[in-house]
């Protein structure tokens, strides 16, 4: 067995988990959809069928004040039980346990009925919370106990109490949000009273044969947050109060430090979890940016944790555990930590899914059933759209030939993988290569098919992607003008003084390429150390909130300038969960941005622009163009005599990304 510790069972005394992998809590927005619980049941059932030992649901509120937003799931009365039974019955077809996460948003709710220990407004919410009275606090505890009782009636094996990430319980334990002077505030003993009372009363009410997980805020990454001594003290008190498992929570949602983005090294925060595990005897869970069996096994073998929690990796591949069990880790569709289809969708009010697996949360809708009329299909272009279409269409029984004019598959994925902080794209390329090799797809590399060849197929799918738009600015000099592809592929020397035309995602990639130090070749521990130094994180958590006391800001101005014609913020089209990281990096690097730039000409002096009525000349060594893309017109449609389809960049460039390209590929493959 390649992963003996990860795949070994874990006894909790009254029950046993079949392995050490937990599907961590993640809201999908399915709960709020018509027939959403039926879809949710199938979503979790597929992960249970895939071998995961324990599932923790998305957060469910114990009452109306605790919801994150209107119409979010509440478990308060027996009338709320039946939908949850659909979920537990579906999961219990398999040897998988499932726990309901009880989450009270506190001041993080996006509605006007917020409550919190103190009337301190969250920086990410426009409402001031009502400070709970002593009587109201007691009612909140009662509601938590009631919710846990209903969860047991619904068939859940246990509950997870959400005590981290800055939600209500965490708001009680931290002086950042708790300014009370009564028995619920002041000393750490008083600030810990609220979570400990919840645990004690749930345990007393439901007995010993019910799993209680507590998600503990291990490192808060905000000023006036708890330090390691307080975290350990609470962990020990929680064990005494009756929890079976302590899960790790990393950072508050208002923290200005990335914790799960692709730029965060794998297992970057495991050190914090390990430091707490030494002081308790109940199992402790490691989490955040753990996306391969090898990393999970290493954490467990090193004794840093007893279990490993993964949320997004089980969106990407529901059979993660089964594939590891079968010594087929190379076939796992690995989470690339892009956030585009999962967390970004939640913020947009959409159903969470996965860029690399569009079936995630759409298991009852998107199918690749065997076709009754197999066709000979040519696919031109082996980027994300073409490669995924070929895989899905072949899975259905079509005869697929995949043509790629370059020597490798991947297209824009291979380009993205060259950006510091985006090496995870290499995992997706590996998955595509392995899956195509194991499928019936005929792959023709270094081959641009002629129309004569294409006309011998029943249908043609054109997935030729995009190409950079040319810069249309008059030039009277030999000042180098590069496209972003040449820069990302290290084909050119931009010099130190660079003007970047464009402020979209590709422009940010170019900035990262020009300014970031590549650490992804280093051991994970060294990567984590450098990441912590860069973002001012104290992984020992000795300082309050786990933030270093040193100022890492540099006084040196950057020699890079980003320009855009519009007046929007740079990166306005990027996802909410990652765009702030890019903007924060611009501030840290002191990169100048110019909006409302009208490009006039390029001369020996530099780039001439008109900006808000002023004429400016940027004296630069080179100009990098990131001003958009256009479809690659490499297939001559006039000479095609068979039906054809466009997907991905060949179909559109507006609002195009890998997620949309793969969605189009999946949709076409499901119905062709």
TrEMBL record:
The keyword Cell wall biogenesis/degradation does not apply. GO terms for molecular function: 2,4-dienoyl-CoA reductase (NADPH) activity. Keywords: Flavoprotein, FMN, Iron, Iron-sulfur, Metal-binding, Oxidoreductase. SUPFAM superfamilies: FAD/NAD(P)-binding domain (SSF51905), FMN-linked oxidoreductases (SSF51395), Nucleotide-binding domain (SSF51971). Its EC number is 1.3.1.34. Its cofactor is FMN; [4Fe-4S] cluster. It comes from the Bacteria. Residues 376-649 form the FAD/NAD(P)-binding domain. It holds the Pfam family Oxidored_FMN. Signal peptide: none annotated. CDD domains: DCR_FMN. InterPro entries: Aldolase_TIM, FAD/NAD-bd_sf, FAD/NAD-binding_dom, NADH:flavin_oxidoreductase, OxRdtase_FMN_N. Residues 6-329 form the NADH:flavin oxidoreductase/NADH oxidase N-terminal domain. Transmembrane segments: none annotated. It is an enzyme of class 1 (oxidoreductase). PANTHER family: 2,4-DIENOYL-COA REDUCTASE, 2,4-DIENOYL-COA REDUCTASE [(2E)-ENOYL-COA-PRODUCING]. In the N-terminal section; belongs to the NADH:flavin oxidoreductase/NADH oxidase family. This is NADPH-dependent 2,4-dienoyl-CoA reductase.
